[in-house]
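Changelog-linked ticket: iron/sulfur cluster example.
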Amino acid sequence: MKMSKDYSQYFDFREAKIIREEDGKTTLRLNGRHIQIQSAPSYKDEKKRGKESVRIHYDNAIPDDMREFGRDKSYFIMTYGCQMNEHDTEVIRGLLEEMGYVQAEERRDADVILLNTCAIRENAEDKVFGELGHLKKLKLEKPGLILGVCGCMSQEAAVVNRLMTRNPHVDLVFGTHNIHRLPHLLREVSFSREMVIEVWSKEGDIIENLPKKREGMRAWVNIMYGCDKFCTYCIVPYTRGKERSRLPEDVLAEVRELARQGYKEITLLGQNVNAYGKDFKDRAYRFADLMDDIRKIDIPRVRFTTSHPRDFDDHLIEVLAKGGNLVEAIHLPFQSGSTEVLKRMSRKYTREQFLELVGKIRSAIPGAVLSSDIIVGFPGETEEQFLETLSLVREAEIAMAYTFIYSPREGTPAFEMEDNVPMAVKQDRLNRLNELIAEMSCESNRQFEGRTVEILVEGQSKSNPNVLSGRTTSNKLVHFEGPKEWIGHLMQVRITKPTTWYLNAEAAEPPRLATALSHGA
Ligand code: SAH
Ligand code: SF4
Ligand code: F3S
């Protein structure tokens, strides 16, 4: 039998037997397991950037007949990767809880286990396949368990292939564009007992009004999805699709509602928040305008991540300089200090342009604390070019950075470049960079000694329940003694002893407890 769709990249035809084809779905048997492919990912399609406008859907209620589906059942989700994924997990939890599922304390108690995965580097993927190996045993003990894989790895054809051919104990694979389809997919898996695969290669439309199960006093808010930057090393534009912005009125309504519920801090999320609004055809409204409007909402702290230096414009700097709830911590990944390497990364700015931007930020926002993401060992990176990265950290006074060894990702342009920096050299560069970052962090922290600053109390220390931790507006981690009733509050502390990675402090003034959260988290 010939298949109407070409899935030849996913498996060896000689081993798979097609069982049926109906309604655009293909069901086949492979290694004794029935696999139902509703749709599978394709890099070719993920690379495309169509001109068609994005539709926004507001009506996404869970069908009535599914609201009891998860009754007396529980779920467990393991989340890998960035804040975008963490926030997607909140949506998934929201959907599951609207279906009646409750969260399981431990994975072995759960009826549904989902792995929300990250594809950014090879080691992120290795962790997931390792975890799937462990879960195989649990699945054998509990055949009724539904084991699902979602997130960025699901958008990769090679991963879907490996799941189909070598992980028959997986029951469900869905991607980043069709999270809202989860209730339907769970029903399909439960009734068919087949492995169900539904991954959309073309980005979905924007789905509003999905339930979100948030925790704590800090909330993430998506302002845009996808990325069009195509940095040559990066897989995100393929796994997350094209840039599309949520309408300002929808973002502002969500932020106002969070303020009403008593949240103390929001973080606006996007792979490249500075590109917000570029896709609007009917209005000239950009990230700076959005920040200016959010500034007027009564929520104590507003953060955003991540900004690309290229789109960080003067208007945004002007708005951030107004301060108020817009904090002075700015995460600004620069990736490399060498203009030559930046060019090969297709970052579209030079070292000098980055420094100029930092200069503008510093003169407009005197207390600005900058953090960054940096890659070492990009193809062809010389010792000299690496030294330029070190010197840029100093010149730009980067206080904190996430540092990474370059990891080749199949399907990206850099994958075609010769990965010619030996691993030992990459490791050595990473160590030297990390030493410098520790020095920079220490130096930046030292400036806080003796100062009284406002912090948001986030939780208890894991090792000592009498010690609380919180963060300053500049995003410094602070430890101090206090009762757990202070968690979730803003308060003043005096910094007593800064260390490399955090600040020790003492309470200067207890919080006004009347300002507690009203949403009960
Ligand atoms: N959108 C964000 C970054 C998201 S990925 C931005 O552009 O700032 C987070 C970080 O992972 C990147 O900033 C980069 O430093 C790192 N990264 C991405 N792809 C990588 C790769 N192939 N190897 C190593 N690090 C990578
Ligand atoms: Fe990746 Fe570059 Fe987009 Fe960031 S801006 S997500 S590094 S392609
Ligand atoms: Fe990873 Fe996807 Fe985020 S690849 S870093 S989870 S966007």
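Closing comment: Example verified and attached. The pocket of FE3-S4 cluster (ligand 3) is lined by residues 81-82, 84-85, 118-120, 151-152, 235-236, 239-240 (CB under 6 Å). Residues 17-198 form a domain with the Rossmann fold fold (CATH 3.40.50.12160).
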